[in-house]
Specification:
The complex is a heterodimer of chains A (343) and B (295). Chain A is an alpha+beta fold. Chain A is 31% helix and 29% strand. In chain A, a hairpin with a 3-residue loop joins strand 10 and strand 11 (198-208). Chain A starts with 5 loop residues before the first helix and ends with a helix. At the A-B interface, helix 7 and helix 8 of A face helix 1 of B.
Chain lengths: 343, 295
């Protein structure tokens, strides 16, 4: 290898340094996602945000970082507002996610709280939705919101009328000038009602990509028996039927869309081996891309349907008929939405 | 097992086969060892004071000190506080205090009143009271540990209170995720820790029943209590009862802890750290009894 002349080497070194500096400056310029006021009410924030990424999220929140990494996580910006008087502080956490769907997913983990309007664009509130038509929920001093690819938590350490106003104002500031993409398309497989009185619990819809999140919403297995990962998207929801003997009966729907039909088939096979191992061992080798099955297990009837990249499962049905009704609904919706999408 | 290893699933919880599945899939130790001595229930004290926190959740340290005294008296069955503490800690012990450091942390006021009791009532030298949360060198120096977690649900493990409180002593907390959270009990058996925990004292002043460890004020409430015992699994089992009943009360419908906290029963049946069976636990309650959540 021939050596570079000292002049060339110096020039290259200078270019590298300039590029590094420029990259650093660009990163600094790009890193700030929200433009929060320096003061709000009696609270004043620190000059700069603390920036957290996947490499140091556990230093910031040991035991909770997995939740954000389970979705498409880019970075977290943390601002702390303090007050000089008796008021306690306000914590602002802005999670910059890779897609709007990921940010929606974080909000969908819990629909509890008081819906509040934080978005200036009316379309954000008026477009028909499958889930609850809100993008921000407030309770006890904590505001959680979804604004495009941002999920934010704004929390007053002590709730007072003043801190509530400040928290909501900060939420509006975070959402300002941001797009309002629709909720994830996969939610459209969920009918509001189904035959025989099954009604969707809008407050029990969760969107996710990881079995860890699924287990928080509906426990299935401590292991990843459905092969969920960042290339998949999934929704789970409860349906309730209050016409059965006058008491509410709930079933759980799970629908996963895989990147390829092969992945979907493998996932069904693994699910079958893990969850239904007392049934037939594995799937019939003849199963390729379409398959429907119903089995009775300890907590009721379970039905599933594989169709290309899509796998729908329903748990805890009171009888085979209800499992068939629900699986048929989901499958029909998935196919018709795909056709709509293809037009 | 081959290519089809046994997986722990929802069905195991319905069928009652959790132990058998965990034993062959994760633990590598037999299930159903158990540790409760026949005929001797584990005592868990629940001491509450309605006024220990004000409306802004500020802690009254004097009332908290009274609650601590009541806790130690009732746990040991002694009449005098010096005798009660003497049953747990000796003056020449090197005592490690192991609070939850962050994300719904143990109240510092509780740490302070425990320190004060050790200094003034037991006579432990100040240099021999160590804040022992962190790496395993810290408990290694101690002759006694006081496990002082705050009561909270945990989105990954179901509960993140007593058994999980020593996770940093493992050196690799990420090894105890998901199904492997069943193995959290093994950390209590490493040489630096084994047999040193003289008191489990849970800060249940302002617990969190969902979405932990990140704070969510909707799921925090003023329970105003201290839970204590010498059997860590029994204390955790009572903690689970409180969290579960609070969740049901909040939603007005069954709201089980999810994922199910497998570390608690495993701490009993696989690692023999104490009992997870409520019928083997004697709850000794004193003080405020409204919304006790132990029905």
């Amino acid at each position: 290898m021939t050596g570079l002349s000292s002049k060339t080497a110096s020039s290259l070194a200078a270019i590298v340094i300039i590029l590094s500096l420029w990259e650093g400056i660009s990163a600094e310029m790009n890193v700030k996602t929200v433009d929060l006021p320096k003061t709000i009410g009696v609270w004043t924030r620190s000059d700069s945000a603390r920036i957290i990424d996947a490499s140091n999220i556990f230093d910031y929140m040991n035991g909770a970082g997995e939740l954000y990494l389970a979705y498409g996580f880019d970075r977290l910006e943390v601002y702390k507002y303090t007050a000089s008087d008796q008021q306690e502080g306000i914590l602002v956490e802005v999670y910059v996610m890779k897609t709007s769907n990921d940010a929606f997913g974080l909000l969908s983990m819990d629909w509890g709280g008081e819906p509040v309007a934080i978005h200036p664009l009316p379309s954000a509130q008026t477009n028909p939705t499958v889930a609850l038509p809100t993008r921000a929920l407030y309770g006890g001093g904590l505001l959680r919101l979804w604004a495009d690819a941002i999920y934010a938590r704004v929390m007053a350490y002590r709730e007072t009328p003043e801190s509530r106003n400040a928290v909501l104002a900060l939420g509006q500031k975070i959402a300002a000038d941001r797009n309002s993409p629709p909720e994830p398309e996969i939610l459209n497989i969920l009918s509001q009602t189904m035959d025989s009185g099954w009604r969707l619990r809008k407050d029990r819809i969760g969107y996710f990509r990881s079995h860890l999140v699924l287990n928080s919403l509906y426990y299935l297995s401590h292991q990843n028996i459905l092969n969920l990962d960042h290339s998949t998207e999934a929704v789970t929801a409860a349906y309730e039927n209050i016409s059965v003997a006058g008491t509410a009966k709930s079933v759980q729907v799970l629908f996963v869309r895989y990147a390829t039909p092969e992945k979907a088939l493998k996932a069904l096979n693994d699910f079958h081996n893990a969850y239904l191992q007392d049934q037939q061992k594995g799937l019939d080798p003849g199963v390729t891309q379409k398959y429907t099955n119903f089995v009775k297990i300890e907590d009721g009837w379970l039905g599933y349907n594989l169709n290309g990249t899509d796998l729908g499962i329903v748990f805890e049905c009171p009888n085979r008929e209800s499992a068939q009704i629900i699986i048929n609904h989901i499958s029909r919706n998935a196919v018709s939405k795909e056709k709509d999408h293809g037009k | 097992m081959g290519n089809n290893p046994k997986r722990l699933t929802r069905r195991d919880f319905i069928r009652g086969t959790v132990g058998a599945t965990l034993a062959v899939s994760v633990l590598g130790v037999p299930w159903a060892k158990g540790s409760a001595e026949a005929g001797r229930p584990s005592i868990v004290t629940v001491v509450r004071d309605k006024n220990v926190m004000d409306a802004g959740f500020k802690v009254d340290s004097e009332l908290l000190k009274n609650m601590l005294d009541q806790t130690v008296l009732r746990l040991t069955g002694k009449d005098k506080i010096q005798e009660a503490w003497a049953q747990l800690i000796k003056p020449d012990d090197i005592v490690g205090l192991v609070p939850t450091p962050h994300l719904n942390p143990t109240h510092p006021e509780l740490v302070d009143v425990v320190k004060m009791s050790l200094l003034e009532t037991v006579g432990v030298a100040e240099k021999n009271i160590i804040m022992a949360q962190g790496g395993k060198r810290k408990p290694g120096r101690c002759t006694a540990l006081i496990c002082m977690p705050a009561l909270k649900g945990h989105w990954l493990t179901g509960i993140g209170t007593v058994v999980k409180n020593y996770i940093m002593y493992s050196g690799r907390p990420s090894r105890y995720h998901a199904e492997k959270s069943a193995k959290l009990g093994e950390i209590w058996l490493i040489p630096e820790v084994k047999g040193k925990t003289r008191l489990v004292l849970v800060d249940a002043l302002h617990p969190l029943c969902d979405k932990g460890p990140q704070p969510d004020p909707r799921y925090k409430w003023a329970y105003n209590g201290l839970l204590a015992g010498t059997d860590p699994v029994a204390v955790e089992t009572v903690c689970l009862r409180i969290l579960t009943q609070k969740r049901h009360a909040l939603r007005g419908e069954p709201w089980p802890i999810s994922p199910p906290p497998i570390c608690v029963e495993a701490a009993d049946k696989a690692y023999g750290l104490g009992t997870s069976e409520m019928e083997k636990i004697k709850i000794v309650h004193s003080g405020w009894d409204e919304d006790l959540l132990l029905g």
